[in-house]
Amino acid sequence: MILQTAVLTALLCSVQGFSIQAAFEKTEENSGNTLTDDDFSVSTLLEKANVNVGKNLDEPLVISGDIAVPTGLQNADPCTARGCLWPKATDGNVYVPYRISSAFSTRERNFIIQGLRSFAESTCIRFTPLQRGQRDFVDIQSLSGCGPHSIHTKSMGHNVGNSKRPFC
């Protein structure tokens, strides 16, 4: 009986010793725990934050991590119809009216406006506050997920943009 216990103990000790040694031999390279720059890219972070967006029937379907698409029957390429794109003004700029939900605080609204204004620095897009009588506009609301999201077409009368509170 003592011999069996000694042999069993010797076997268990050698197995435990091997397991511990094998764990120490793992390098960071092959452990699967390394992080790359892609893990921190904006698109990757948005996709992770929006993984469950669009699963609620009251919210639009979200594709590619940050694009809200209306459900229902629509063309696979929604911008093939005339009038789909925002028109270019005679000065060469594209003016896009927007409305920000009152659910946002003044600080949050100013943050969103600052982001919209940043488009003017490198593009011909100029976001302008919605004026009475404008049918097509971007509607920025506080929904679930991490935004902004936008609907592809403007033929619905307005596009819904989303920016979750608190900001992600």
TrEMBL record:
GO terms for biological process: proteolysis. The keyword Disulfide bond applies. GO terms for molecular function: metalloendopeptidase activity. Gene3D superfamilies: Collagenase (Catalytic Domain) (3.40.390.10). Residues 75-168 form the Peptidase M12A domain. Disulfide bonds join 146-168. SUPFAM superfamilies: Metalloproteases ('zincins'), catalytic domain. Keywords: Disulfide bond, Signal. Residues 1-17 form the signal peptide. It comes from the Eukaryota. This is Putative high choriolytic enzyme 1-like isoform 2. The lineage of its organism: Eukaryota, Metazoa, Chordata, Craniata, Vertebrata.
